[in-house]
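Translate sequence into structure tokens.
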Amino acid sequence: MNRQAVVALISGTVFGMGLAISGMSDPLRVRAFLDVAGHWDPTLAFVICGALLPMAVAWRIQARLKKPGVAPAFDLPIARRIDLRLLGGSAIFGIGWGIAGVCPGSAIADLAIKPVPAAIFVVAMLAGMGLRRLSAKRLPMARNTISATASQQSR
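Result follows.
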């Protein structure tokens, strides 16, 4: 296993443990956060705020580095504008998150805690990712986005 894979595995494990410890892998807690008109649970807001400080530090450090420690280049987003695709994708993600009470990160963590419901979500998520890749091969706009991303990564 190469260094990049080891760092990714460790990072994902720490992230999953954080989700489990904070209770954010519990769909009921996530739904309670989204239920602002009912029995609102602000726990997720505290978790998000707790993540802002280390990320702010990480972005400051990244800005000073020429390249990452275990990858050939940084894989940063190239899009700088808010468009309909971004808003639509965000809305679909938010609706799915609200309905299921699970996001991709917590779904992966849930595979260890409650494998059957999490597996159903993960399979559906992977199917959606596969459809996205398939549509990217057929739609010129999506193909341009992917090729722009690929060219950015090769720099």
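Note: Residues 64 and 142 are 32 Å apart (CA to CA).
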